[in-house]
Amino acid sequence: MWDNHKALKGLADVLLFASLLMVLYASGFWVTHAPVFPVKRIQISGHMKRVTPEQLRFIAEHELSGTFFTLDIDKTRAAFGKLPWVRDAQVRRRWPDTLDIEVDEHVALARWGENGLVSVRGEWFDAASDEALPVLSGPAGSQKEMSLMLEKFREELGVSGLKPATVWLSDRRAWRLGLDNGIRLELGRGEVESRVARFASHWKETLAALPYHIEYVDMRYPNGFAVRMPDYRAPAASGKK
C-alpha cells in the first residue's frame, strides 16, 4: 500500500476531508454554545388579563437556559404553559439576541363543579377566579358539549331577562337548568333548547305574575309544563245546601 501513490493520495484526501468536517463541527459547536450569543431580550405579547408580568418574569429568570442557538423551544413553551391561565405560548427566535413569546390566555366561561374552570373554547383548566360564573356539572369529558349548551341556554333565555346559574347533565343525558332567580328547570332529554325557549316565552306574562314562590318548572311535557309552588294551597271546595 505504501508504494501505491494513488492509494496514499486517496487516504490523504479522506483524512483531510474528515479533518475539515471536525473543524467545521467544532466551530459550529462553539458558535452555538458560546456565551457570546446569549438571549438578551424577551419580548412577550398577547392579550393578557390574568397572567401577570411578575409570573412571566419568574419563568424567564428561573426556567429558561441556554444561548440564542441552544435554548430548547419546546421546553420554553412548556415552561410558560405551567402558568394556570396560559392556554398556549408560541416561542420564536429573532436574530441576534431576542426571544419572541406570544401568550394565548384562557377566558373563563364557567366553573366545572368544584374543580377548576371551563374556558369559552370548552376546555377545562385548573385555575382560580373570584368572578361570578355559572357552574357546570356533568360526566367527565362533557365540558365542550356543556359549554356550547350553556351559550344556547343564554340565548333562549334572552327575552325572559333571566340567566343560567347552574347546568347539570346526568349520565343518562338528562338536562337540568338552574336560573339566577333560584328557579330550577327540569328539561329531560331531547329538545331541551325548545323547552327553554318555551319557558322564556311564558315567564314574564304568566309565571312571573303568580303570587307564589316557584321552586321548579317541569318542562318535559310536550305541550305545557308543571309548576312546583310549595306555598300554594288549593282553595277548599264549597258545599251546596
TrEMBL record:
Recorded topology in the membrane: Single-pass type II membrane protein
GO process terms (BP): cell septum assembly; FtsZ-dependent cytokinesis
Keyword annotations: Cell cycle, Cell division, Cell inner membrane, Cell membrane, Membrane, Transmembrane, Transmembrane helix
Cell compartments where the protein resides: Cell inner membrane; Membrane
GO terms under cellular component: cell division site; plasma membrane
Span of domain POTRA: 37-106
Keyword set includes Transmembrane helix: yes
Keyword Transmembrane helix: yes
InterPro entries per record: Cell_div_FtsQ/DivIB_C, FtsQ, FtsQ_C_sf, POTRA, POTRA_FtsQ_type
Chief site of localization: membrane
Annotated TM spans: 12-31
Pfam family, one: POTRA_1
Biological function: Essential cell division protein. May link together the upstream cell division proteins, which are predominantly cytoplasmic, with the downstream cell division proteins, which are predominantly periplasmic. May control correct divisome assembly.
Quaternary organization: Part of a complex composed of FtsB, FtsL and FtsQ.
Membership in a protein family: Belongs to the FtsQ/DivIB family. FtsQ subfamily.
Protein name (Swiss-Prot/TrEMBL): Cell division protein FtsQ
Organism of provenance: Paludibacterium paludis
Native organism taxonomy: Bacteria, Pseudomonadati, Pseudomonadota, Betaproteobacteria, Neisseriales
Gene field: ftsQ
